[in-house]
Design goal:
By secondary structure, the chain is an alpha/beta fold. It is built from eight helices and ten strands. It has a seven-stranded parallel beta sheet with strand order 1-10-9-6-2-3-5, sandwiched between helices. The protein has a three-stranded antiparallel beta sheet with strand order 4-8-7. Strand 9, helix 7 and strand 10 form a beta-alpha-beta unit. The structure holds 2-phosphoglycolic acid.
């Protein structure tokens, strides 16, 4: 796990956008796993701007989103599909057939989840999975206690996550109880993970993820076992890291070939 600490939120978003840009430029038919939430909005804005300047082509990129609320139609204003339309899909030249999403209205959730897993395999697997982290350490909607080997399936949100995600819905009571999410095992199968976290509210989860024991009590901690995982944080989210100075030292002394332009 490579922890990259940037002084500001803007710096962290820029770093994450550069990593995605490099991935798409190096492999124009990249399969990307995408995340929703407030954290990556600025990353999507940066990618959309690069595209609008003619500097980034999404025409061969394939995407799979991490999760969706059960019971919301894809055009519901609070659905994650709508979020992605607003922040990325409507602004870049992704081919509609290359965009994959979990269906919150699927009748047979189990079969739908199996189809999603099969579609990821059929696409050649995820090259780069973008992730956020919940305050209780979830990735996707794999809440504490999730099997670290789990696959795409139905999950029940914790009251904390419902509260954290309530802004768009008006109140925590309005947030759907259930979601469909890629599993921890599904995420771990991706070739590269890029977890982005900003703000002090994430500092404890980030520290436990990077420096605590690997445990289903904090599902993101399994990323310590991922062969290529970058964690990009601002100073706020880095506030509880014991090895922060070492991570900065590593970054500052990167060999030239590892540096992003
Ligand atoms: P946030 O959500 O970006 O809105 O903080 C992150 C997450 O829950 O994974």
């Amino acid at each position: 796990m490579e922890v990259i600490i940037k002084a500001t939120v803007a710096g962290a978003l820029e770093e994450a956008a550069k990593i995605l840009r490099r991935q798409i430029r190096q492999k124009p038919d990249s399969v990307l796993g995408l995340a929703t939430g407030s954290t990556p909005i600025g990353v999507y804005a940066a990618l959309a701007q690069l595209h609008q300047q003619g500097d980034l082509d999404f025409s061969r990129v394939v995407t799979f989103n991490l999760d969706e609320y059960v019971g919301l139609a894809s055009d519901h204003p609070c659905s994650y599909r709508q979020f992605m339309r607003q922040h990325l899909f409507g602004k870049v030249n992704l081919a509609p057939g290359n965009v994959h999403f979990l269906d919150g209205l699927a009748r047979d959730v189990t079969a739908h989840c199996a189809e999603y897993e099969a579609a990821i395999v059929h696409a050649g697997g995820i090259d780069l999975q973008l992730l956020g982290i919940g305050r209780e350490g979830h990735i996707g909607f794999n809440e504490p206690g999730s099997s670290l080997a789990s696959r795409t399936r139905l999950k029940t949100l914790t009251p904390q996550t419902a509260q954290d995600n309530s802004k768009a819905f008006g109140s925590a009571d309005q947030v759907p109880r259930h979601v469909i999410t890629m599993g921890v095992g599904t995420i771990m199968d991706s070739r590269q993970c890029l977890l982005l976290a900003t703000g002090q509210a994430k500092a404890e989860a980030v520290a436990r993820m990077a420096e605590g024991p690997i445990t289903a009590d904090l599902p993101a901690s399994i990323l310590q076992m991922h062969p290529v995982c970058k964690v990009v944080v601002d100073a706020g989210a880095a506030g509880r890291l014991k090895r922060a100075e070492y991570y900065r030292w590593v970054y500052d002394n990167k060999p030239a070939w590892q540096r992003l332009d």
